[in-house]
Structures are given as C-alpha cells and as structure tokens.
Write a structure and sequence with these properties.
Number of helices: 3
Pfam family, one: GatC
Catalytic activity: L-glutamyl-tRNA(Gln) + L-glutamine + ATP + H2O = L-glutaminyl-tRNA(Gln) + L-glutamate + ADP + phosphate + H(+); L-aspartyl-tRNA(Asn) + L-glutamine + ATP + H2O = L-asparaginyl-tRNA(Asn) + L-glutamate + ADP + phosphate + 2 H(+)
Protein name: Aspartyl/glutamyl-tRNA(Asn/Gln) amidotransferase subunit C
GO molecular function, one term: glutaminyl-tRNA synthase (glutamine-hydrolyzing) activity
Distance between the termini: 61 Å
Radius of gyration: 26 Å
Keywords: ATP-binding, Ligase, Nucleotide-binding, Protein biosynthesis, Transferase
Length: 95
C-alpha cells in the first residue's frame, strides 16, 4: 500500500505533529514502508499458535483480590489544603 503526501499530511494533522511541507514526501515514504511491513506480517500463518506473554512458558503472577482502605489515609490527606475528621474539606458548591 502506498501513502501519498496528502494522506501523510492528514495523518500528521490528526496526530498533532507539525511537519514542514518539504518533509512530507519522506514521511509518506516512511508510512508506506511501515504499512508494507504490516502487510508482510499479515502473510504469516498463525493458525493454531497460542498467544504468549513471554518466550519461556510461564504463568502470570496473580494476587488475591481483596478490598482494603489502602492504609495510607494520613499520607494522602497530608497533600490536601484542608482536611477535617479524616476527609478532604471542600467549599460548599450547592446553595
């Protein structure tokens, strides 16, 4: 798949990347090379191949899902500009 300069400019704009007009041909070439590599990867037959997290077989470490209060109330409230009775104190916004 080939990317033209107009498409490259549109992608750069969507990515909020400022690209000088003289750099657009090189950017379009880079995009085309990336898409060419992706097309090569799509040709690989992966039927029957299980997804893996590592090159060595291993099971992901898991922890018990337990609800706690975090045990850091004082440390968190130390950052607050105003804290009372163990909670953040904020100005009243509803009259």
């Amino acid at each position: 798949m080939s990317i033209d300069e107009g498409t490259a400019a549109r992608v750069a704009k969507l990515a909020r990347i400022q690209v000088a007009p003289e750099r657009l041909p090189a950017l379009a070439e880079e995009f085309s090379a990336i898409l060419g590599f992706i097309e090569q990867l799509n040709e690989v037959d992966v039927d029957g191949v299980e997804p893996m997290v590592s090159v060595t077989p291993m099971r992901l470490k898991r922890r018990e899902d337990v609800v706690t209060d975090g045990g850091q109330q004082k440390a968190v409230l130390a950052n607050a500009p105003d804290a009372r009775e163990g909670f953040f104190a904020v100005p009243k916004v509803v009259e």
